[in-house]
Amino acid sequence: MPSTLPDGDPAPADGGLPESALASAGSTPFGVYVHVPFCASRCGYCDFNTYTATELGGGASQDEYAATAGAEIDLAATVLGGRPVAQTVFFGGGTPTVLPAADLVGLLSRIEAALGLAPEAEITTEANPESVQPASLAALRSGGFNRISFGMQSARRHVLAVLDRAHSPGRAATAVAEAQSAGFEHINLDLIYGTPGETDADWRASLEAAVETGVDHVSAYSLIVEPGTRLAARVSRGELPQPDDDVLADRYAIAEEVLGAAGFEWYEVSNWARSPAARSQHNLLYWNGANWWGVGPGAHSHVGGVRWWNVKHPRDYAARLAGSRSPAAAREVLTIDDKRVERVMLALRVRDGLALADLDEAGRAAARQAADDGLLEPGPLGTGRAVLSFRGRLLADAVVRAMIGT
Amino acid sequence: MLSSDAITDPARIRNFCIIAHIDHGKSTLADRMLELTGLVDSRQMRAQYLDKMDIERERGITIKAQNVRLPWQVDGADYVLHLIDTPGHVDFSYEVSRSLAACEGAILLVDAAQGIEAQTLANLYLALENDLHLIPVLNKIDLPAAQPEKYADEIARIIGCDPGDVLRVSAKTGEGVRDLLDQVVAQVPHPVGDPDAPARALIFDSIYDIYRGVISYVRVIDGRLTTRDRCLMMSTGAAHETLEVGVAAPDPTPRPSLGVGEVGYVISGVKDVRQARVGDTITSATRPAKESLGGYRHPKPMVYSGLYPIDGSDYPLLRDALDKLQLNDAALVYEPETSTALGFGFRCGFLGLLHLEIVRERLEREFDLALISTAPNVVYRVDMESGDEVVVTNPADWPDGKIGEIYEPVVAAMLLLPNDYVGAVMDLCQGRRGTLKGMDYLSEDRVELKYTLPLGEIIFDFFDQLKSRTRGYASLDYEPAGEQVADLVKVDILLQGEPVDAFSAIVHKDKAYAYGTAMASKLRELIPRQQFEVPIQAAIGSRVIARENIRAMRKDVLAKCYGGDITRKRKLLEKQKEGKRRMKMVGRVEVPQEAFIAALSTNAAKE
Predict the structure, then answer these.
(1) Which pLDDT belongs to residue B576?
(2) Which domains does chain A show, CATH number per domain?
C-alpha cells in the first residue's frame, strides 16, 4: 500500500458499519486480507507500509504481531456479526514469511474460528524466495495455505541489484520447486519490468525463467518510481534513468507474447493464469467490487459500499486495538456516482469486462469510439460487453476516463 | 500668500513638467518638491502622491498623468508652480504631448550615472517642438558612480546649452532642489492668455472616479472656467453641467473658477472618459470659443490581441471588466471575438505593447481574471485585385481572394546605446527588416541610431532582444511613420488537419518557414501524446511548409492497485478527469491550456 493514506470521513471507534453496508455482507463474496508490515530489509523501489526493525515496541514488535492482528480479526467478527464466510484469505506485506509459519497459521486459524472459511477457500501468502525453506513451506501447507506468491521480480542479477532484492537469480525457481514439493496447488511469480538497466532481452529471459518453473500464475508490474523512495532519489539525481513509457509498452507486449506462447491467458491487466482455475480469486474480489476486511496497519477494507483504511504505523495500530478501539483511520461511504465510477474503473480491467448496460449513453458512445480506435474488442461489444483489446489494456486508464465522462 | 479663492495672476504662475527616463528619479524629485513646499510631510509621502496605481509603483513608470499645485516664494514674492507629471512610455506619447502642451517649461532630468536615454530624448524633442523652456538637471549626484561632467557635456551638446548651465541635484537627499525651484520661477515663462476671451482649456488627462464620475485635468488657456457655467467639449459638441472646478493641492480643493494659466480639474458629470478625451478643448456652453486649441487626435490602436478567459465561464466577467476599464481608458477598444481553440473572448486594440500588458495585468489583478492573450499583431491594409481594401487586425480576417498590395505600419525608431554594441544592434535591426536612417555620436562612447522598422517586427520580443544583446544598456523609442508595402503571408498551424486559429500569424514571406517550424516544434513539445498520432503542420494557404508529429501514446495505465486502495485510484482518476476538463479540444486532440499559454507567451514581446 502507498506511503500516504487518502483523506476520508471519521470512522467510528467501535468499527461499526451502517446497516445498509452490513446488509450486503451476507450476499456478496467476502475475503480477508492480512497485512504483515515487516521486511528483512527495505527495497529501494518500495513505498509499501513496511518496517525492518524487529522491535517497534508497544505491542508492535514482530513477535507480538500475530496477537495484535488477531484482535482485529475478532473485531471484524463482532462488527460483521458472523454473516460472511471468507472465500479467500490473502497474507501480503511487507513479507509475511518473515513471521514464523506458526504465526501465519495461527492467524489463519483465528480467521476460521472467528469468521469461518468456505470449504474450497483460496488461502494465499506472499513470500520472498529467500524467506522460505522446505520446512516452513510444509508448515504453511499443512496449516491450510494452498497458494503462494513469490516476489521473483527478475531472473537477472543486475536487475535484482538495482531493485535491492536480496535473492540470487536462481533462488526463485528453487523456491517454486520447494513449494511444489510441499504440495501447494497454485503458485504465482511476481515480476517487475522497466527497471533501469533492464533490456528487452533481460525481460524476455525473466519471463522464460518464470514460465519454466511450471507455476500456473504470473503477475507482471511495470516499475513505478514512487515519490519518497530511494529509487526516486536516485532517478532525480540522474544516477538512474526514468523508465520510459514506450519501453514499458514494449515490455508489456513481450510479456503477452512469452506468456501467451506458454499457455497463459490474461484475466486482469497485470495478471496471467494458465487456466481459469489458476486465477487469483482474491485478486478478482478487488476488481469485482466484492467485500473484504483488511487486517493490519494501513490495510484497506470494503464492505457494502463503505471503504475504510487503518492507521498506518504498527505502534498506533497496536495501541488502538489494545484500547479496544477500531484501528480505522478514516472511511468513506461511496455515493451512487462513486460506485458507478468504480464499477467502470475496476470491471474494465478484467477479462470479462464491463456490461454496457452499466454505462450511461455518453459512456456507451465513448465505448463505441474506443472500439473504433481499436481499444475495445469488437466481438464482445456486439454482445453488450466492453472488453479491452491488447492495445486497450495499455491505455486502460484513458479508456476508463472516456467512459466515465464528466 | 495669494488668496485661495481669487484667480491667480498669470504672471505669478509657472507651469512645468519633468522629462525623465524610468528610474532616473522623477517621482523622488516630485516628492521632494512636495516636501519643500510644505504640501506633504515626509511621513505621508508614500501613501500620498505620484504613481498611485500598484502597477506604476512596481514598474517605476507613470501611466496616468498627475498634477499638483505648489506654493513657492522667491525674494518674498508668492508664486504658484504647477507640476504636471507626464506618462513615461512610448505607447502614451500622445498623452505626453498634451501634458507638454499644458506647460511653458520642462525640467530635463537625467541620471548622472547613466546619461540620457532614448525615451528622454524623444520626449525632449517633443518639448522642443512645443517651444518649452528647458532646464537641464543631473540627478543622483550623490551616487559614487555619478559622472556629472561627462553627462553635462552630453546634455549640453544635445540641447545646445553651456555645460555649466546644467543643474545638479540629488532628489534623494534634497540637495539642489530648492535652487531648482527658484530656477523654475526665474527661467520658465509665465503663461499668457486672453482673460476676456471665451474660455478655452486643454484636457491633458481624464480619470474615472467611482464616486464623482470623470475628473478632467485641464490647463486654462483663455478666459475662465466657472461652476456657474455649463461646459462644452469641442470635439464631441456635447454640453455638460460644470459640477465642480478646483486645484490639486495635492488633494482636490474646489475653487469658484479657474483663470488664465491655471492648472486644475473639472468635474462635469460625465460618466465615461471617452466623452472627455485627452487633447480635447473645454469651452463655455453659453459663450463658446470659435476655435478649439488644436492638436486633438483621436487615439488609434496600434496593436491588437485577443483576450480570452482561461475559464470559459468567466466570459461575462471579462466583458464587465473591460466595460469598467474603458471608463478610465479612452484608448482601449474591444469587440467580441470567437476562437475555435480558445472559445469566447475579445479582440482588443491597444496603443502599444505596454498598454496591452497594463490592461491585461489590471484585468487579472483588479478583476481576478485568468487570461490567455493571443500573439499581438499590428494593423495591415490589404488591397485586393478586385479593388476592395481590407483592414486586417486579426490573422483570422486575412482575405482569401487575389491580393494586390499589402501595407504594414512602420515606425521611426531611435536607439541609444554604448558604441560597443552598434554591430549587435545593427544585426538585430537588419534581421527585423529595418532601414538605417542615421547614426550620431551623442558623446565619445554613446551612439544614437535611427531606423525605420516595421511595427510588426518590434512587437515580437524586439525589446527583450535589444536588452539582451546590449546587456541592458540600449534604450529604444519610436513613433509611427506611416506604412510601407510588404510581402506578407498568413501562416496557419494545423493539428490533425484542423487549423488552430489562435496560432495563425501574419509574417514576412522570408520568415514564414522559420515561424512555421518553430511553432510546430514548440507545439510538439507542449502537447501531450494522445491515443493516436497527431500531425502538426504549418501551412500558407494549402501549401504545407513545416511538419512535426506527436507520436501516439502507448501506455496509460497504472499497473497495480496497492493492496486494495481503490479510493486512491478513484481519486487519481477523478483528478485526471478534472485535468481533462481544462483541456481545449481541437478536433479530437486534447490541448492543455498551458500549451496555449506557453506557445503564445513566448511569442509575445515583453516590455
Answers:
(1) 82
(2) 19-287 (3.20.20.70), 335-406 (no CATH)
